[in-house]
Design goal:
3 helices
Length: about 60
């Protein structure tokens, strides 16, 4: 999976972030343990979650 950076996450709207989150989650779940794809998916999830949290009125 391609890594979604904090910069890229910030440039997306919320609907796009939710779609990317789903894609990254599925990539993480299906990638072999220890693979680069799994690491990229996990970092992407963290970056997307951080961006969504910043946008939350409760975050």
């Amino acid at each position: 999976m391609k890594l979604i950076s904090r910069f890229e996450a910030a440039s997306r709207n919320t609907a796009e972030l939710n779609a990317l989150y789903r894609e990254a989650f599925n990539a993480f779940a299906s990638a072999p343990r220890g693979s680069a794809d799994r690491r990229n998916a996990l970092v992407s999830i963290e970056n997307i979650e951080a961006e969504l949290e910043m946008r939350s009125p409760f975050g």
